[in-house]
Amino acid sequence: MTSLNPLAAHVCKEDNFSMAKKIEHLEVSKRKLLGHGLESCSINELQQIENQLERSLSKIRAQKNQLYKEQIERLKEECGMVPLLAWSEQAVVVNNSTTQTMEVETELFIGLPERSK
């Protein structure tokens, strides 16, 4: 087993101390983001924590919405449904660089059903 020279040992001690300080700082930050230990925070620091949480929540919601969209599209494909965008694109006919829209007639009725007498 080789021993470290005194200078290398000192550098390792400083690195360990520095890492311990960084870990402690990260743990304090984590506790604050979880809402613990906020008593010592200034209004400015609380505002910064709130802003960070709002940005994080926004990213989380965007990712969740993306996953929902992907899941909906996958379910539509499994059920044999044509995505709405693809269906509406089929209704547009391009003829000599002019776009014409075809009308599609359906039996769709919006309103209250008629009552039988």
UniProtKB/TrEMBL annotation:
It comes from the Eukaryota. Signal peptide: none annotated. Residues 43-70 form a coiled coil. The keyword Coiled coil applies. InterPro entries: TF_Kbox. One of its GO terms (cellular component) is nucleus. PROSITE patterns: K_BOX. GO terms for molecular function: DNA-binding transcription factor activity. Keywords: Coiled coil. Residues 9-109 form the K-box domain. This is K-box domain-containing protein. It comes from Ficus carica.
